[in-house]
Specification:
Layout (H helix, E strand, L loop, with lengths): L7 H118 L1
Length: 126
Amino acid sequence: MNVDGLSTEQRLDYGIKALTTTGAIFAGIALIINAFYGTKRAEAMHKTAEAAQDRQISERFAKAIEQLRLESSSFTLLTSTLSLLTSTLSLLTSTSSLLTSTSSLLTSTSSLLTSTLSLLTSTLSL
């Protein structure tokens, strides 16, 4: 627009309106740029939060698996201990039976020796 034919007041009014319009345009552009980068920051924060959540879930699963492995090892150890105790009990039972048989054999041997001694004594008395 040609401002040569305007009065000073009209020129000032036109300049103020032009500056206001230019300021509004720059403010709008700044708002759009700010909204764009704000959206990018929000997306980046969302991705970071998802990654952190995924890591946390992975860590929890790893801890649960480790705990199950430890419990499984404890169960295996208890099972082995129970098996060893069962074998020991069986061995003790066999040993007890053997001792009973040995005692019975010793009693029979003692009776036989007593009879043999009696017989020898009788034979010597004759």
